[in-house]
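ok trying this again, last paste got cut off
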Amino acid sequence: MNKYYLSLILSCLLLSFSCSKTESAKPPIVEKQENDSISIWIDESYNANTERKLELQNKAFQLAKNTSNDTLKSKYFSNLSFNQQFLSDSLLFRKINKEAILINKQIKDSTAIGYAYYDLAYFLDNNIVKDSAFYYYSEALNIFSGTGDMELMGRMYLNMAVIQMKIKDYVGSEANTIKAIEGFKILNDYEQLYRCYNLLGIVLGDLKEFDKSLAYYNEALFYLEKTPNSTIEKASVSNNIGVNYRHLKLYDKAIHNFENVLKINNLHIKHPSLFAKAISNLATSKLYAQDTLNVENLFKKSIEIKKEENELASLSSSYFNYAEYKAYAKDTINAIEKLKKSENLARESSSNEQLLRTWQYLAILDKNNASDYFKKFTKLNDSLLSEERKQQNKFARIRFETDEFIAENIELESEKQVLSKQKQIWIGIATGFFLLGLSVYIIINQRAKNQKLRFDQQQQANNQEIFNLMLMQKQKVDEVKRLEQKRISEELHDGVLGKMLGARMILTGLNKRATDEAIQEKSKALGSLQEIENEIRAISHELSHSAYQKISNFTDSVETLLANNRNTKIKTIFHFNEDENWDSLAGEIKINVYRIIQETFQNAIKHSKCSFFEVTFYRDDEQFNVIMSDNGIGYNVIKGKKGIGIRNITSRIEKLNGSFHIDSTEGQGTTISLNIPI
């Protein structure tokens, strides 16, 4: 390449000092024919099969390198780079893309440079090189920001946000998506606005903020209504909305959504993968709603389609849900079999999240191998968390680091300066040392400016990093505050309000009597109020100190809790094995189970109209089990409202990594079972 440019310069010098004709190294007709061939090969390659496409692009690339016209060369390399990004020949693509970046820098075509970076980022993204893809998307963004192209800026922000979502950098993903939305709203680009809001729905869903996620999905549907030929996209968003409803335990709404998806004409032909997902989601929602009619057939149909489409990760998820159905039907052997299929498919598809879910469930069902599954779960979970932290830190620094590609470009710029200096020497040799001295001065001055520019850029980068760290710290503080508020709410509701209700009911009844017995009962009620005072003081103390160990005698505490309410005319019974050391349970288990019993007992007093309340403790292998029953009026579990009491029980059980089940029929009382690993 150097020889070619040097010969061209010498030819120009000779022409400037002579009137005689000089023959060109390559006749214009020949060069035109070659240029025509390059264009034909590039155009033909767009619609060719993979093998033919590679052949044509290789031929075009080899000939394009020798094109003397820089503008044409830029056009050829840019078109080849765009077309090659969709193929798997990494070596050829990098050669073409490198040439495209180099020639466009030489002719200072900023837009073409930005597109070349875009091609490179897209290629790396498709080949799962997420950190490098993110870097080159950001490089393209910097260039498009300079040109003011809002559409391309929005696309870069959105592509970067998608990568950040995949590595669970949800804060960064949300921030970049919002930046993309700002530009697309000005442009009224409804299709891209749908993509942005759909991504926000996914991000908030992963953060388990399902209400916000639903709002974003509905916004995505709003823009899809303005987008033609968007039936499949609408079906996909509706499927996601159904999944959110299922997480919120709004099973009727979830089922309705999935059924609407399945009603779309020819969906099984147009998008069989989405069709299979909707079937599996419908079956799972019906199972959770305890409507098992035809559920097994739905699971089988979903699995069959996913096998045909070779959707391994999705197939793993369907086998997992199928196992849940088998476990619900008390068919533990088949449930374990389905889970092992899910495990193998999750491994094969590198679906680590699904693998964790499967091991966790196997540890519950397969008692003989529970320890091994738990160890596998812990090891993989710790490894994934560590890798996520590394990736997130890497992405936080990626804009401020210099990689091999940048170093290579600096070397090329230095080489160009040397060539420019050589040309100046040949052309300006008559002016001698004056021009040489001027050149030296310019170089030194330019280096000083470059050094100052690099310092300013680094300073800006450091300021940005400090800001990001401050923002992350604030988010962590806000989350801790939220969790603490929730805990205090639970303690006040379960403990203080329950006891105050009991004391109020006693005093209400005693005000109608003036007997010695009534006086004694009033004294007991006052004692209960004093206990409430002490409990409020204990809750205050818990704001800075753990209170998990305050129950020194677990069974005595439960007996006292039940005994203090005998005046309500409810008979209470407490069954437990006196040979068991119940006080050896972890403090966290004791305090939360105590609060759950308290909550359940108070609900029975207020709502069940029961005359009998029973509590039973027993151990089964490595599990602590609690059964609470009453003979009250009962209620419809499916249709019944889930108040704060049920939500608090759910929250406490989740803290203990346990599970609970409510069995109630109208007119036949209510039974609540707790299962807690120990």
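PB: full thing came through this time. The longest strand covers residues 612-620.
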